[in-house]
Amino acid sequence: MAIVLAPMEGIVDEVMRDVLTGIGGIDLCVSEFIRVTDTLLPLKTFQRHAPELFQSGHTRFGVPLRVQLLGSEPQALAHNALRLVEYGAKVVDLNFGCPAPTVNRHGGGAALLKQPDLMHEIVSTVRAALPETVLLTAKMRLGFEDTSLTLACAEALVSGGVGELTVHARTKVEGYRPPAHWEWLARIREHVSVPVVANGEVWTLDDYLAIREVSGCDTVMIGRGLLAAPDLARRIAHYHATGEKCPPASWAQAMVWVLDFYAQCRARGEGTPYPVSRIKQWLPQMKRSYPEAEALFAAIRKLTQAADIQTVLDAEIRR
Ligand SMILES: Cc1cc2nc3c(=O)[nH]c(=O)nc-3n(C[C@H](O)[C@H](O)[C@H](O)COP(=O)(O)O)c2cc1C
C-alpha cells in the first residue's frame, strides 16, 4: 500500500510538498503539471516546477517526486519527457484530466478524454522516446462529459505503454463535486493489466479504507484531504502499522505546520505576492478539519503585507 500526494497546480508546490512530506505518511509526490505546447521547455521551467529533481529527486524528507507533463502534441511531449530523463527523472507522468478551460481549449488535459486514439498516440510516442528503464505513468479522469469512453481511454493509455494509471474518479464536467465514483476504479482495475491508483474525495481515514475496499486498489492518491488534514497520511500509515485509529492533530499542532509553511514561503518569495497568496490559499482549505482556520483566515483576509500576516499568525500560536 502507498499514499501519493496529488499534484495540485498553484497549490502543491515545492514548499507545500516539503511541509506535508515532513509530517509523514506520504510515499510519493507528483509535481504540478508542466504545460508543453510545441517547444522544448527551458531548464528554468523544470527547475521552477520540480526543484527536487535537481537535488536528489526527493523532498528534504526523502519522498520521491514524479514530474507531470501536460499537452496534446506527441512529439513535443516526447522531447520534453526525454529532457526530464536527462535531468534525472526515472518516471514521467502525463496528465489527461485537467479541466481548466485554457488547457482544454488547446486540446490538452481532460479534452483528450474525447479522443482515445490521440491518447494512445501520445503515450506510444513518448514511450518510444524514453529508455526502457524509465516508467511512464498517466493520470486520467473518467471522461469528459460521461463515462462512455472510460474503459477505451484506460485501454488506450495502457496499450500505448503506460505502466501505472492514476484515476480521478469523476468526469471533467463533474469538476470537484462529490461524489467520486469509486466503483469505476474497480472496473478500470479489472480491465487493465497495470496497477491503478485510486483518487478522489478521500478526506478521512474511513474514506481511505472505503476507497480501498470499493476499488480494490492498493495505492491511493490524496489531494484536498491532505491540505485540510495535513497529518491524514501519517494517521493512515499509523493505522497500517498498528491497527489503531489515532485522533487528528490539534489546532495548536496544525499551527506549527502553518508557521513552518509561511516561513518557507517568505524565505522563497519575500517582497513578492507569493507568501501572502499562498497562506490565503491554504487556510480556507483547512476549514474542513479545523473551524479555527476560518476565523484565522478572516483575520488575515484583507492584509496585504507579509509582516502583518506574520503578526496575526504569531498571536494565534500563542493563544
Ligand atoms: C487546485 C487544483 C489543482 C490541481 N492541479 C492538478 C495538476 O496539476 N495535475 C493533476 O493531475 N491533477 C491536478 N488536480 C487534481 C488533483 O490531483 C486530484 O485529482 C483531485 O483534486 C481529486 O483528488 P482529491 O479529492 O483527493 O482532492 C488539481 C486539483 C485542484 C483542486
Description:
There is one protein chain. This protein has 319 residues and is an alpha/beta fold. 47% of the residues lie in helices and 15% in strands. The protein contains 14 helices and eight strands. Strands 1-2-3-4-5-6-7-8 form an eight-stranded parallel barrel, surrounded by seven helices. Helix 5 (116-129) packs parallel to helix 6 (150-160) and helix 12 packs antiparallel against helix 13 (292-300). The longest helix is centred in the last third of the chain and has 19 residues, at 251-269. The model has no long low-confidence stretch (mean pLDDT 97). The structure holds flavin mononucleotide. Flavin mononucleotide (FMN) binds next to strand 2 and helix 9. The site of flavin mononucleotide (FMN) has 23 residues, from strand 2 and helix 9. It catalyses: 5,6-dihydrouridine(16) in tRNA + NAD(+) = uridine(16) in tRNA + NADH + H(+); 5,6-dihydrouridine(16) in tRNA + NADP(+) = uridine(16) in tRNA + NADPH + H(+). FMN binds at residues 68, 139, 168, 199-201, 223-224. Catalyzes the synthesis of 5,6-dihydrouridine (D), a modified base found in the D-loop of most tRNAs, via the reduction of the C5-C6 double bond in target uridines. Specifically modifies U16 in tRNAs. Its cofactor is FMN.
Present as ligands are: flavin mononucleotide
Can you summarize the main beta sheet? 8 strands, parallel, barrel
Q: What is the CATH H-level superfamily of the largest domain?
A: Aldolase class I
Helix and strand content put the structural class at: alpha/beta
List segments where confidence is low: pLDDT < 50 over at least 5 consecutive residues.
Answer: none
Terminal residue distance: 39 Å
DSSP summary: helix tally? 14
Active site: 98 (proton donor)
Cofactor: FMN
Pfam families: Dus
GO molecular function: flavin adenine dinucleotide binding; FMN binding; tRNA binding; tRNA dihydrouridine synthase activity
